[in-house]
Amino acid sequence: MKNNPEYRDILSLCLLFICFFIPPPYFAHFPHEHGFRSFFNLDTQQQYQLSGTVTDSYGPMPGVHVLIKGTNTGTFTDPNGGYSLLVNNKDILVFSYLGYHSRELPVLGRTTLDVEMQSEVTELQEVEVNAGYYTVKERERTGSISRVTAKEIELQPIVSPLQTLEGRMPGVEVEQGVGITGLAPAIRIRGTNSLRSEGNYPLFIVDGVPINSTPLQSGGLFTNNVGIDPLSTLNLSNIESIEVLKDADATAIYGSRGANGVVLITTKKWKGTKDHTSLHINMYSGLSHVSNKVRLLNTPQYLSLRRQAIANDGMDPEDAFAPELTLWDQDRYTDWQNVLFGGTAYNSAINMVVSGGNEQTSYIAGGSYHGQGSVFQGNFDYNKLTGNINVDHRSKNKKFQLNFSANYGVDENRIFNGTNFVNYALTTPPNAPSIYNDDGTLNWDNWVVDNPLAVLEEPQDIKTNNLLASLNLSYALMSGVKLKMNSGYSNLDNEDRIEYYRERYNPNLWQYIALRTIQSQSKRRSWIVEPQIAYNGAYGKLEVAGLLGVTLQDNMNNYRKVEGRGYANKILMGNLRAADNVRILGDDHIDYRYGALFGRLGLNWNKKYLLNLTGRRDGSSRFAPDKRFSNFWAVGGAWIFSEERGVQENVPFLSFGKIRASYGTTGSDQIPDYGFIDSYVATDGTGGLYPTQLFNPDYSWEVNKKLEAALHLGLYRDRVNLMINWYRNRSSNQLVGYPLPSITGFTSVQANLPALIENSGWEVELAATLINSINFSWQTSLNFTLPDNKLVEFHNIDQTSYAHMYRVGYPLDITLRYRYDGIDPETGFYQIQDIDGDGRLDNDDRVVIKNMGRKYYGGINNHIQYKGISLQFLWEYIDQVNFSNIFNSTAPGNYGNGPLDFLNTWKNPGDAEDIQKASQSSASSNAFSRAANSSLGVGDASFARLKNLSLSYQLPRTLMEKLNIKAMNLYVRGQNLLTITKYKGLDPQGGRGAVPPLRTITCGIQLNL
User: Where in the chain is the domain with CATH 2.60.40.1120?
Assistant: First the structure.
């Protein structure tokens, strides 16, 4: 959507209409039909006194609401669970209590009516959790599985499913480092297991279909180091749940693919009643802004600092490079952050779903559109269109079942390519010349560097379409024995084109500039077939669940990158036939094949003692024939000790208690394909070949050994639930590029290094119902993770190139820094300690180790409800460090703006300022650069962020019945509304030079028809 005044006015009116066209107070006082009857005393039947007691499995229940259906007449149970009410023979009583199933019972002339309530919270233990190849009840799972459902997912106005996990799961780190829609978030499950960045991606599975989790290759400022999200084309409104598998018991059945955890995404299925068709509509509109800006010097402050620096150097402005003082308007001021990324991004979305069916066949089909503007100047928008269908069928005898699902999505993302975009916003002098000439073209007069908006003349268009389809068949061969076949297909196409216009450069250079494009295409095709046989049986108190299956998977990846140069005009750009010169920059075709045999045996004795055994034998084409296969396994067990008679009698406040543990191995083959063979690449146009890779058939799988122990407690009728996990994962036999001397002609060869990486930590989850009454409730949940990552062993690390990257006994995510030694009282510049005293600063002087990873992290989620009004909000908190904002600019006093901290520069000996003397000398710049690489260059970047907020109003049931709709919900939602931090850069998570996450507010409506 374009940022224009007309659209802005229309959108504002739409938002006001959606939010206020039905005032909530009006419905709050809407009379009930039976309420009128009671008021006018039209029921003339004989009334009499009815009494009784309300209990649950733990005894009497006080505070239960007892209501005569269709009236406003009712009461609450007393502390002993008793109640008394005046009724007549035809009345129906409704018993309700938050967290319990409501019950409706007719009076039928009875004078005593005792009721037992069934707890919904207790039934949470009976929820079926997706464990991949099988499902398991929450109370009976032996593995570590975290879950978010559609209720949490739908609250967030975002694009990527991974973003819904931020702050909601212990042990799961999700980071959207750049506030640009469509780019891939970083995700790590229980830390970093590999020395290779590409070796830490988890396994993504959508409806049983594995997805290549590696971000799509691209170029440009925002995409070069991040990549395109392969999950961005999914419709968030169509996701039923996301499960994350973490420990060996949960992941070993996936073998090598589950070494870094598994993310299972399940789409929605039909949930209606027999022979019923329903329509669900959800639509919203909103706006977004950059959530933070850096406080920079204004024009008087900046010019004063420049004059001070020139005077300190003993020079005059005319003798120094100072166009701000000699050429430019001294009174001009431009807020470059506001100009470059201070706009308003308007967004809107609509999702429509129709579902229906009968006892044999049911379906759900939907489509959605999501559009989002940009905070940058120009027409840089993101648009996504999706469609989905899910069909379930079962035979009349219920022996044969079929499920087919298909999800198709298309998104287009138009951004721009610029290497110094954010830096321009933070460092361009505030009194720089005007951006545009009177005719609307970019102004280049008196600019000593590029016009900051010139980068917008390098637009980048990214188009992706993705098809995911799965077909699952099952047949009950005999009692307890079922044959199954899961199959899937994925097809992802991505096109990326960067256009380089002449307007990107100074007009004086146009005669030397040719119009050119760089275009890339990525194609990913994969299919998977998994025949299985499952068994479920009971032998007295023993329940047995078995599974045996085979996996056959084939992935084909194609990537081509082409440069076209010498187009006649802009209209022809992108048509390679119109280019004077075409050069192929890359052309890859990769075929990856994977096969496995897997099995599971689950034993459940008397609903108290659980044992789960899993195993998998993997084969991967990424290894030489002699190393192609490897075995992975896990054992998990649990004891539900709350079922023991002594515990039930002596600990009455304990409603559920379970201890579980697991140990096992997973592996990893996340290395480049064909890495074991010697390879050659064709030379440009000469018909020759040159070697690019050495032959090494001896390297083999990485191995990740996982150990875990956990405690789960449910207290006070499960109103309080506490889960504590301890884990330790050890990854060995590291697959990396082993450095070689340059005399060999190669920089490295693929090999296993003798390095051992350990990830351990504690995970805590606490959920509680703080208030529980008929009209008001308050539920809160907290998760907390205390991780510990370290390089335990690395034999002879001093003899490898990794000696300057890692330290044994420290985390992998470290930075080695010089030791800062204050400001030199003689020069006024930063000084660094020369540790070895050799008169120079090199790697041997980098003795300060800073851990750039998270020290701890978590989230606090609250859900408060009063009648039809619901408020939900999530705070995310992270303790970490990041690179200091001070060093995102040039040295104080040099050309280029800086933060307000530069007002406090060192001036005289004895000053204790943290900012060195203002100067534009080379000595100043060198000292500033060295300090940026010292301990001073890293500072506290901990933060607490109000990640999500949702306020909604559910219309009363009586009104919806009159309107002939099932449900209607009005809501306002926010994203990244507030960040509390000491960090002074743009974003404590993305860093000093990243566009921060967008603050988004949306208003919408949900309808069920």
Answer: 31-118
